[in-house]
Design brief:
Helix 1 crosses helix 2. The chain has an eight-stranded mixed β-sheet, sandwiched between helices. The protein is an alpha+beta fold and about 180 residues long. It contains five helices and eight strands.
């Protein structure tokens, strides 16, 4: 377990899959309520999160009372969005915050934890993608030091729908590993 600025981080285990589904669905409902057409409740089930635990990493952030305040997925490749790439980056997905329990700035703490995790593996870049129709999220990531490096206008979703994503990257060369 890693403590970072009041948030306790731990890798998710199979028993956490239901918690991750609830967190995802809550985030999806919040997006819909605020007119953001991105995630849909029910799109990610326990099997999705268990699979991500098997082929990447899923991290939970919690408070000192054990309540989950957020989570994210960390992948070591993302060919669907980025194509075949040399192993120089980690790919952050599904950054989620529990809006009722999370302290202010929890999303940024989760993102910084992912960046440090990537840097500790010797990889020099953090990458993520942001749906093209979400300018608020794009601004959030740019404010966290990410820069736009490309766009994929026709990404194919697992459900068959096509949507655009903006590709963002942050160099981690100067990131403190402390």
């Amino acid at each position: 377990m890693i403590i970072d600025d009041g948030i306790l981080f731990r890798r998710a285990a199979e028993k956490d899959a239901g918690t991750l589904v609830r967190l995802y669905d809550q985030a999806a409902r919040w997006m819909q309520k605020h007119g953001i057409d991105q995630w849909k409740p029910g799109d990610k089930d326990a099997a999705h999160f268990r699979a991500r635990m098997g082929d990447g990493e899923v991290w939970l952030g919690g408070d000192c009372d054990g309540r989950v305040v957020g989570a994210y997925e960390l992948w070591w490749s993302d060919e669907d969005a980025w194509g075949v790439q040399p192993p120089v980056a980690g790919y952050v997905h599904r950054l989620m915050v529990e809006r009722e329990a999370a302290p202010a700035g929890a999303g940024r703490r989760l993102l910084e934890h992912a960046e440090r995790r990537i840097a500790r593996t010797g990889r020099e870049r953090a990458r993520l993608d942001c749906v093209s129709t979400n300018p608020r999220l794009l601004a959030y990531y740019r404010g966290a030091g990410y820069r736009v490096v490309g766009e994929l206008p026709n990404k194919a979703g697992k459900d068959g729908r096509t949507y655009g994503v903006i590709l963002l990257e942050k160099r981690l060369d100067e990131l403190s590993l402390v």
